[in-house]
Amino acid sequence: MAANSAADVVLLSEQYPIGRKGVDRGTQSPLFRAFGDVILRGKPGNRLFSLFFVQHKPDDYHWLGVLVFTKGKRLLFFPGTYCPFRLLEGSIKSKQPCTIDHLTLDADGRGRHLTSITPKIHVSIPKAPKLDHSGRHWFTIHYSSTAFMHPLHCQSELRFPVPSSDSGRRCREIDSAIENAPSTIVRLHGDARHWNHNHVGFTFYVGGPGFGHTTDVPAFPAQNVEIEKNAIRTHVVDIDGHTTVQITAYCTAPYLKSEAMLFF
User: Fold this and answer.
1) Number of separate domains in the chain
2) Which residues form the domain of 52?
3) Which are the contacts of 143, defined by CB distance < 8 A and separation ≥ 6?
């Protein structure tokens, strides 16, 4: 990845060995929103982790999202979609589907927040419950189809307007954010062709060093919906040596009436 400044614009260019052919210049990419948080607002000390999801086709990669670890040790997640989410009834104040910009987990591992684009809201979510395996459930995101996840292209070119007097520093912040922050490819277990027509979900847990040895998935708000146990697969992302994020991928039989659902 390279960041260069020209006049009052920072150009961010990234190439991937995976993904469909073409160049992604869209503002709906989670990479654009995550780097926008670093560049447009001039926030220092962030570290970014790209998360991709793939099923069985070689070019069938999608953005699961981007994790951001801030200087203040908060975790932010920018979902890899721009479709409206239906929120679990009773979880937060907004009961209408909303387009999410990012989710936040406070440095204490308990406080949770949601920031949406439409409608424009920022709300607190009930504190993350501690689980038996010493981790905490941050959130679960569920899609009725991978068609609602942003496709991954083999190249991204993103442009950000910045003050000309500060463009150099912000380019350095980008380089610092991506240094030693590898991407993670998330998959289902087994032959993914078996799950091609199922709904897919991803549960995010957060714990300390060495955490990440459970395949637990929180109960669904929908009744009589079973998880395909043979498809469950876990992935562990070491954030900084002290914080670990576990992503549990799973699938169910089709049941969602909306494009995507988020619950806590």
Assistant:
1) 1
2) 2-263
3) 81, 149, 199, 200, 201, 256, 259, 260
